[in-house]
């Protein structure tokens, strides 16, 4: 069971958005120790966070970063990426976009909470968890957020997560979601 790390909601680190337009609670971040020279010394190569969007406005810019945003609560948002038509997202829906894109967000009816997974695109890619309840980290990472109470079957153990808790599965980790609703994704390392 050591391949899985539970992160309790009380351990999330609150911080302002880069552009000052909201609050983020960082769940976890990491670097890849064997990353090429151009990316060494970075604060992070991947970051998993929870954000509250309390008002309409722009998102922060993250050049070189790929992002996956999933709405987890609230009525939803209209997200405009560069010059494309707005995309409406409700709870449980996600969207991937480049961190350097010009993003503007309009709330549908009040604040939302959203999960954000970001990776340095030179080193990794994000694979949204749409392929059922089997979690397999292979050579990357699994990042899971419990929207409600979640049960994970890990080998001969069962791990229970309270709503708002997270878990990270390291390389080689496997589990099955046996109860509850969760949002999860896999970070897959790229050959560099």
From TrEMBL:
Annotated TM spans: none
UniProt cross-references to CDD domains, sorted A to Z: cupin_HutD_N
UniProt-listed SUPFAM superfamilies: RmlC-like cupins
Domain of life: Bacteria
Pfam families named in the record: HutD (PF05962)
PANTHER family: PROTEIN VES
Protein name: HutD family protein
